[in-house]
Design the sequence.
């Protein structure tokens, strides 16, 4: 295979104009879920996140870089990794990069990758899997934080039921530290999600408050789906009707509901405890 | 006691100038931990947060409001609650308020309150208390999130050892949803914190990785101090040497360390489980 000589890109023209069509497209793809769907592309920003994406064999189409933002953290090595891919490299001027960037303190690299399949059928579950289901999740930062916990606690798959956030939202990538690019995640309607869980004979344990028992009384040792509702509303009637068990995180004081990632941590750490202790 | 007639303030002069000395002072108190220490005052912004502060009997000196930001959520009732206090009320013009505010979408009320005692001696512990110790905590948002979990899980006291964040930082108040104003929290050096824990015969269970057992093997049923290190560094030699037990949150995959509030949620929910199950 012909390896692209790296420095040709450096010598080629630098994109300086804020009106350049590529810069405008980067902004659109960052801001608009619809544009991402139309083009089947999404931006991944940041050295660390892009590395996770490369390791996860995401298909990159374009890479934008701006050496003014480099901080000698291996940017060259990262860009070299694209030599053997189909991705085209473009150098941006400082202002053009700042406009394209999602971050306050960019680190000088943004890559465009092809969106990927998120059908539940992409998930392959082994024996006694631990599945996390998030219903109507809406805050990308919360989703990212929960994905971090899910990976740490060995969750086998994450299912987003009627997600109110676009999975390719830049803040999902950022707040998950790039894990969204490699984790087994799927997206579906409530019915599709339920069908998937039933097809895999998973016990559905939802977080609720009516007729609920403390979460540590749930049995998480066999194949199980831990189900958390939206931050604002909790679980609606569909899941309340279709769950096998309703669990609650007992709270004292006048504390309101907990942050989604705190609730997830409680459920997942208890599942880890039960599974390790077996 | 003489009740101040509420409407005198409304009829008095509205502060419009961004150069007004009170506006400048509000900005200083918001930005500078040093200024807060010098004056012994700190700003509390937001209806909900101020209400928690009133209920916790904080001493308010001044209240600033701007009806342009009101959203009919009981602002008048809140301002009336100050009638029987020593606090002076001031109306600000929209720009002056926006300059004084910490928020992107202010709700029109900022109060100044006196800083309060944070010595460990302020904490009174009952039998078999559950104490949470945070060492070198540095991010106000993390501290606020942990305080929310701590209250929810019935923690009896929170001790900040060598805190790298000012407890009166506006973002601690905001991210704790005002709980920092009413919770039993104390601040001290590492040695003061250790002395306090030893004086109360608390078993110190720290989060670590060397020679550590899974956190669910810790015994949290008697008086115990759960100790978490800084987000970046974890626990340093002082606490590693002085802890009674080292616990770890087992993690799979290549996940790095967890967010502080996720670690706290794991420890605290396990403590709740053990204590409820007794």
Sequence:
């Amino acid at each position: 295979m012909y390896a692209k000589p790296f420095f040709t890109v450096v010598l080629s023209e630098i994109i300086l104009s804020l009106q350049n069509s590529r810069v405008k497209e980067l902004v659109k793809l960052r801001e608009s879920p619809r544009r991402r769907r139309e083009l089947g592309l999404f931006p991944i920003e940041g050295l660390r996140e892009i590395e996770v994406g490369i390791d996860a064999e995401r298909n990159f189409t374009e890479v934008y870089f701006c050496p003014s933002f480099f901080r000698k953290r291996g940017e060259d090595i990262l860009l070299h990794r694209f030599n053997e891919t189909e991705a085209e490299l473009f150098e941006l001027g400082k202002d053009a990069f700042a406009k394209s960037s999602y971050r306050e303190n960019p680190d000088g690299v943004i890559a465009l990758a092809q969106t990927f399949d998120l059908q539940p059928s992409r998930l392959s579950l082994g024996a006694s899997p631990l599945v996390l289901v998030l219903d109507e999740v809406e805050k990308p930062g919360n989703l990212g934080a929960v994905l971090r916990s899910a990976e740490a606690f060995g969750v086998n798959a994450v299912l987003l039921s009627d997600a109110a956030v676009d999975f390719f939202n830049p803040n999902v990538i950022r707040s998950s530290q790039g894990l969204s690019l490699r984790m087994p995640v799927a997206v579906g309607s409530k019915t599709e999600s339920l069908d998937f869980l039933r097809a895999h004979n998973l016990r559905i344990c939802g977080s609720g408050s009516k007729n609920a028992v403390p979460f540590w009384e749930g049995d998480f040792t066999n194949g199980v789906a831990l189900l958390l509702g939206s931050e604002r509303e909790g679980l609606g009637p569909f899941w309340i009707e279709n769950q096998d068990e309703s669990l609650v995180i007992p709270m004292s004081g006048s504390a309101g509901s907990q942050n989604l990632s705190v609730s997830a941590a409680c459920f997942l750490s208890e599942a880890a405890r039960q599974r390790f202790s077996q």
Summary: The domain at 120-277 of chain A is CATH 3.40.1280.10 (Alpha/beta knot). The two ends of chain A are 51 Å apart (CA to CA). The longest strand of chain A covers residues 60-65. Chain A touches chain B through 31 residues (CB under 8 Å).
